[in-house]
């Protein structure tokens, strides 16, 4: 497969054990790593440089699981734009203060809070100045969702599987939530506006 | 601005009223349309062809608001891949049956259910065969989120503003939810695995 050769060349996969000049043997760990790289590239849309960064974090041994999960998550979290409306930044800061954001989540240093500020800035740029009102109900719904996510990955077993599950679950979960939210919109819309005459 | 000229040339914006050979006047409706096109392109990442499709739906007059919201939503919902695992399709079908999916949401005809099936197929392709277990808790959380979304757009006023709000709120909301879910992960992770020794 040309893709595997490409990943090998880019140093994203360790070399297999040569069994003949043209054949290499890949074990279970190789396959797991290949699947992870594929998920990052195909589902997460990450660049090769970003994939390399995620793998480097995963391969660092000396950290607590919680710290490592946080570092991996930062590596897969990049704002869609680098334009921040100061008012949107203020909204994010206030929201984080209000909910006791975990250490490390400051607007300057965290890709996650930058994602949030970039999205609220985009809303403001097209006249949606009150979009931040949605943060509170979103948080309420996401508490249920995030708890299920963490329970899912905790069941995966080994430390490596949990970290891989966090990456995969975050990126594939994004897509599942996008689709499912649209399905639920259709249901709730029927309830709320079917009799609306606008 | 070259972007406006490009949008004009592509027929995404109506021509302004010429006030001199080199100047055209654009009214409030033009600006609203420009903002919407920008949101679709910059935030939603839609192609010009997809934007044209969304605008055509918005400009069709003779439909109920609920029907129109559904049609617009389909126009901004495309699966990230076209590879479907038959088992993932079965999971989506069963989930939709279980929750009384609204008419029109069948796996063959709906971009939304295809998004869901594509995401679950991606999970299966990398060994996550039980990802569909998350659909139920996701649905529970999304009911809270979708209700807030619909209340937000219902407050926007005119029929056009509501339809624009649905498009903008869906696409920007995707980004806000992505970021916020990562923040909540960090919080829940602290609660669940901080004392875990893996």
Sheet of most strands of chain A: 2 strands, antiparallel
The count of β-strands of chain A is: 2
Most extensive contact: A-B, 88 and 88 residues
So what's the oligomer here?
homodimer
Mean pLDDT of chain A: 84
Written overview of the protein:
By secondary structure, chain A is mainly alpha-helical. Chain A has a domain at 77-133. Helix content of chain A is 66%, strand content 4%. Chain A has eight helices and two strands; from the N terminus they run αββααααααα. The first copy, chain A, has helices at residues 2-9, 28-43, 48-59, 65-75, 86-98, 111-125, 135-154, 159-193, and strands at 17-20, 23-25. In chain A, helix 2 (28-43) runs parallel beside helix 8 (159-193), helix 4 packs across helix 8 (159-193) and helix 5 (86-98) packs across helix 6 (111-125).
Labels describing this entry:
homodimer, 198 residues, mainly alpha, 8 helices
Question: How are the SSEs placed, and which strands pair?
Answer:
The structure is a homodimer.
Chain A: H1 2-9, E1 17-20, E2 23-25, H2 28-43, H3 48-59, H4 65-75, H5 86-98, H6 111-125, H7 135-154, H8 159-193
Antiparallel strand pairs in A: 1-2
Helix pairs in contact in A: 2-8, 3-4, 4-8, 5-6, 7-8
Short description:
The first copy, chain A, has 198 residues and is mostly helical. Helices cover 66% and strands 4% of the residues of chain A.
């Amino acid at each position: 497969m040309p893709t595997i050769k490409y990943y090998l060349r880019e140093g994203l996969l360790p070399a297999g054990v040569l069994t003949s000049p043209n054949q290499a043997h890949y074990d279970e760990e190789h396959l797991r790593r290949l699947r992870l790289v594929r998920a990052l590239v195909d589902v997460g849309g990450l660049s090769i440089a970003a994939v390399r960064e995620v793998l480097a974090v995963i391969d660092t041994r000396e950290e607590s699981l919680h710290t490592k999960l946080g570092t991996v998550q930062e590596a897969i979290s990049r704002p869609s734009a680098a334009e921040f409306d100061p008012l949107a930044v203020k909204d994010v800061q206030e929201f984080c203060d209000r909910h006791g954001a975990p250490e490390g989540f400051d607007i300057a240093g965290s890709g996650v809070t930058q994602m949030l500020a970039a999205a609220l800035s985009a809303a403001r740029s097209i006249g949606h100045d009150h979009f931040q009102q949605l943060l509170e109900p979103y948080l309420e719904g996401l508490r249920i969702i995030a708890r299920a996510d963490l329970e899912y990955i905790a069941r995966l077993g080994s430390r490596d599987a949990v970290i891989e599950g966090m990456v995969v679950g975050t990126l594939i979960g994004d897509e599942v939530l996008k689709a499912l939210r649209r399905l639920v919109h259709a249901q709730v819309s029927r309830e709320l506006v079917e009799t609306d005459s606008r």
